[in-house]
Write a structure and sequence with these properties.
single chain; mainly beta; SH3 type barrels; five-stranded antiparallel β-sheet; 2 helices; 14 strands
């Protein structure tokens, strides 16, 4: 009886050493879904969460916004602005917030203003598809910046921030 108990105890200690606590699986405790951006100019998107999975496509531009929709160990399932999804290693992602300008109904360009109320001086008129850094968002307006512009745009005209999301 005493030998069986020792064997069971040794087996339990051995197994505990290999058990992965739930907290270790999601150490970052960040919300899912959330927006991030690509860290590198070349990011492979795979069919599954390991390098053994086939590459579905490769992004070729750092700074593009993507949405993390799932996590598995060091891998993140992402979705792009076209709705395509796949897995990338977390090292290929950055917490830097960026967004893509969306097309405004029937307009060829989207206005960026000096003030967060649609008034004030017109800073720029951006074409849909322009990628900008997101500096802040509040009360349905986001402050964005990029090459030769820094101003405010309606939050609904960006892909890379959630409706009514506050970004500080």
């Amino acid at each position: 009886m005493q030998i069986k108990l020792r064997v069971l105890l040794a087996a339990a200690v051995f197994a505990a050493g290999f058990a992965v606590p739930a907290a270790a699986q999601h150490q970052n405790k960040l919300p899912v879904p959330r927006f991030v951006s690509l860290r590198a100019d070349k990011v492979h998107v795979r069919n599954g969460p390991s390098q053994n999975h086939d590459i579905r496509w490769t992004f070729a531009r750092a700074g593009l916004p993507v949405e993390i929709i799932a996590e598995f160990e060091n891998w993140r399932r992402i979705r792009d602005s076209d709705g395509a999804d796949g897995w990338v290693h977390q090292a290929m992602l950055s917490g830097r917030r960026t967004a893509i300008v969306r097309a405004n109904t029937g307009a060829k360009t989207v206005p960026v203003y000096q003030q967060a109320n649609g008034e004030g001086r017109l800073i720029a008129e951006l074409q849909p598809g322009v990628v900008a850094s997101v500096k802040a968002c509040a009360k349905n307006w986001c402050r964005i910046s990029g090459d030769r512009f820094d101003g405010y745009i309606l939050q609904t005209l960006l892909w890379g921030v959630y409706p009514d999301e506050v970004v500080e």
